Amino acid sequence: MRTDVPPLLHAYARPAADRSSYVDIVAGDGAEVVDAAGRRYVDALGSLWYCNVGHGRAEIADAVAEQMRTLEVFHTFDRFTNPAADAVAERLAGLAPMPDTRVFLTSGGSESVETAVKLARIAQHWAGHPERTVVVSRRPSYHGVTYAALTATGLAANQQGFGPLLPDVVQVPYDDLDALDHLGPEYEGRIAAVIAEPVVGAGGVYPPPEGYFAGLRERCDRWGAFLIVDEVICGFGRLGQWWGAQHFGVRPDLVTFAKGVTSGYLPLGGVLVGAAVREALEADEAAVFRHGYTYGGHPTVAAAALANLDLLEKEDLIARAPAIGERLGAGLGSLVDGTDVVGHRGTQGIWAIELAEGLSANAVRDALLGHGVIARPIGTSALAYCPPLVVTDEQMDRCVEGTRRAIADVRAGRSG
Ligand code: PLP
């Protein structure tokens, strides 16, 4: 065995030849992180689209430490509960974009999508519609990596080589309501749920066309299908309201969340369960939703979420998203020159630039590190930006200027 190859297997990467090819992040504060050599970077993607309150928040560390000393963990299966899990559920139900909501807790986004798909199918089953098993998702989209979440994900490259995916999932273009009306006779009367991100995130940063979510809602109502809004990225302020669903004025039946609920400080996800699904779950007194994750309702994780929600509220961070749109969105737009940057897209706190053919997003990302900015390639030709909501104007300007210089470096063969 080669001893210079680090044993940690990295997600979405080939094992590197040696440790020196990794960027070793050791600390962070606000919208910046620091590597082992002391170099500072603007964390332009909020780590992985989640660090909404920024790094280094003592309030969250203190809440976690206190909970650890009181009750570090106990499960919430069947008859057991704990005050932190109850409090976070209550808080989230109060914030939910639909009335009379219950909250199912998981440990991340994929588990939440998995849970929502199972909830939709079982609720249909218990409501007397066992034939409604089909889940409609969109292309492109990103919903995670477990089999239901992966099957719903509209990125063909992610699905290759993993064997048979989940049956009864059908995809339509992300912006095409008409495609939903032409799914084919084999799907008629069989739709359990439609799943959609408010703004497609890791699938490429694509906001929906005008009126799209009203169209989805109308079709779900007509078909008796549940609308699952995947808020894993857009929830907790990314679009200037608590939920993307509120930004687009739509009432979901199920909401999946993760990431921003703790700003990533500890792994938490979950599903907001609206009245229609809940009624189906409760209709049969003997029926049990046989589903749950060991760490769902983990009190220490819940304490991190509560402290994070306090910060979002007290500092009115959700109101920051439009300002990010005005500064960062406009700044990235100023890079569009038709030669190196051929487009930019996004809204509020989430943006991407599209690089010209021949410019590799990986190469620009690597060059950008040299200018003190961490952005994330999405696909081969786009770079995404989704900074902590505490990002300053000066840091956003550094993201834009750094990107301009990184592209020039790659063009000049100086880097990447
Ligand atoms: N859904 C959306 C919209 C996401 O962006 C992601 C992750 O980026 C997921 C689900 C999966 O979340 P996780 O990586 O926590 O499993």
Automatic annotation (TrEMBL):
InterPro entries: Aminotrans_3 (IPR005814), Aminotrans_3_PPA_site (IPR049704), Class-III_PLP-dep_AT (IPR050103), PyrdxlP-dep_Trfase (IPR015424), PyrdxlP-dep_Trfase_major (IPR015421), PyrdxlP-dep_Trfase_small (IPR015422). GO terms for molecular function: transaminase activity. Its cofactor is pyridoxal 5'-phosphate. Pfam families: Aminotran_3. The keyword Transmembrane helix does not apply. The keyword Magnesium does not apply. Signal peptide: none annotated. Keywords: Aminotransferase, Pyridoxal phosphate, Transferase. PROSITE patterns: AA_TRANSFER_CLASS_3. Belongs to the class-III pyridoxal-phosphate-dependent aminotransferase family. This is Aminotransferase class III-fold pyridoxal phosphate-dependent enzyme. It comes from Acidiferrimicrobium australe.
